[in-house]
Design brief:
single chain, Rossmann fold, OB fold (Dihydrolipoamide Acetyltransferase, E2P), alpha/beta, 2 domains, 15 strands, elongated, 256 residues, 7 helices
Length: 256
């Protein structure tokens, strides 16, 4: 029985896609329905589905990030609200797309294609190459309106942090800590909401509650258990990397 993971930050979209898939592909088992990219990547790693239906724009990791991080371990179908010009970027044999709201007839075409691909086997190298091309072509269109300033209010004092000076964000149960080389403050904005307004190429999510400025990273160390720790250029903080996000440093950074 083929299996699939669905990822979309809108509950109605997840429910509707599940309903349409039940009609178009009755034997397909939906093993996880995720509300963000972090959950989707973890589900793909744990459940090893045959197919992942990924929304392009999600809080935290985007659908593109999840597809690349899963390293071609499953077939990928993106769901997108982009216009026809951006959709031209999907004209690659190894990936498919569905425009939201998803139409039943278009989903049936995607299912037919997926069945044929699964029958002949997944070429992981081909899929990874296609995802890299897609990322280069879609990344400018995928970026949200980015945050320029961060303000933190403490009593009667408002601290202003230009985004260029922020080293990292770290959240707890109630607040998000914003840290620069010379100061820090607290925000009442959840880190998931904050991440949606940040440039994903500038701020990397390295843990569910941690975003770090890529340029601020001095080195990344790996211990004997394979756990990664980020060290910064202008701050003494040592930031733990969650296993879900360790892919970002494998094969890219020379560890000790």
């Amino acid at each position: 029985m083929p299996t699939a993971v669905i990822a979309d930050d809108e509950d109605l979209q997840r429910t509707e896609l599940r309903r349409l898939l039940a009609l178009a592909w009755p034997e397909l088992a939906i093993v996880a329905a995720c509300e963000d990219g972090d959950e989707a990547l973890a589900a793909i790693a744990d459940l090893r589905p045959d197919v992942a239906f990924l929304d392009i724009r999600m809080p935290g990791m985007s659908g593109l990030d999840v597809a690349k991080a899963s390293a071609g371990s499953c077939r990928v179908v993106f769901t997108t609200a982009y216009d026809s010009h951006a959709i031209e970027a999907f004209d690659l044999g190894a990936v498919d797309y569905l425009v939201k709201p998803v139409a039943g007839a278009r989903l049936e075409q995607a299912v037919t294609r997926l069945r044929a691909q699964l029958a002949t086997g997944t070429n992981a190298a081909e899929l990874v190459k296609a995802l890299e091309q897609l990322d280069r072509r879609l990344r400018p269109a995928a970026q949200a309106e980015t945050i320029r300033w961060i303000s933190s209010t403490v009593g009667n004092v408002i601290k202003m942090f230009p985004i260029e000076e922020v080293l990292f964000f770290e959240s707890d149960t109630r607040y998000t800590r914003v840290v620069s080389a010379t100061d820090e403050g607290l925000l009442r904005m959840p880190i998931k909401e904050l991440a949606a307004g940040l440039d994903p190429d500038r701020f990397w999510q390295i843990r569910r509650g941690t975003l770090v400025c890529a340029r601020a990273i001095a080195r990344v160390r790996r211990d004997e258990l394979g756990n990664f720790t980020v060290e910064l250029r202008d701050h003494s903080a040592q930031l733990k990397v969650g296993q879900t996000y360790a892919w970002r440093f494998r094969n890219e950074v020379l560890m000790r």
